[in-house]
């Protein structure tokens, strides 16, 4: 089974997670600096090739009531560009993924500085884990 990349797309960074070889678990792997849609797509295509990922799951930041807001529309620009580049893309509701990641990092007793370094990839891991869990439903 090809691996899957999970993305937490922000305005300045993109957190990236990847599944294991069996597609059972998600692991945060890196945080990319945003460099414009075209360069972001290039970076993500390189990561997908490196990890042998056949699909990219992008966290969609819906509003609290489940509607699309301006943040979700901006993420969809990247999602459309990834799809136009020939990558298989799916969206996943990412509401409260950063909060969940922060709680996990706090429970692991990471320092504030270390949490700041890994929060984006941890949120991507949460998004990808949700997607993996939703496949069985």
How would you characterize the overall build of this protein?
- The model has no long low-confidence stretch (mean pLDDT 89).
- It is globular, with a radius of gyration of 14 Å.
- The protein has helices at residues 37-51, 70-84, 97-107, 112-134, and strands spanning 3-9, 13-19, 26-33, 53-60, 89-93.
- Helices cover 47% and strands 26% of the residues.
- A hairpin with a 3-residue loop joins β1 and β2.
- Strands 3-2-1-4-5 form a five-stranded mixed beta sheet, with helices on both faces.
- The longest helix is centred in the last third of the chain and has 23 residues, at 112-134.
- It starts with a strand and ends with a helix.
- It is built from four helices and five strands, in the order βββαβαβαα.
- It has 137 residues and is of the alpha/beta class.
- α1 (37-51) packs across α2 and α3 (97-107) crosses α4.
- It has one domain (3-134): Nucleotidyltransferase, domain 5, CATH 3.30.420.140.
């Amino acid at each position: 089974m090809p691996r899957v990349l999970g993305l937490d797309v922000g305005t300045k960074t993109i957190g990236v997670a990847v599944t294991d070889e069996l597609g059972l678990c998600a692991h945060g792997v890196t945080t990319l600096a945003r460099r414009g849609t075209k360069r972001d797509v290039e970076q993500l295509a390189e990561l997908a090739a490196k990890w042998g990922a056949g699909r990219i799951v992008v966290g969609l930041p819906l509003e609290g009531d489940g509607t699309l807001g301006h943040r979700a529309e901006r993420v969809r620009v990247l999602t459309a560009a990834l799809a136009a580049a020939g990558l298989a893309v799916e969206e996943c509701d990412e509401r409260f993924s950063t909060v969940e990641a922060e709680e996990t990092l706090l429970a692991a007793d990471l320092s504030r500085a270390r949490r700041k370094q890994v929060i984006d990839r941890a949120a991507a891991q949460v998004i990808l884990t949700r997607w993996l869990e939703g496949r069985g439903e």
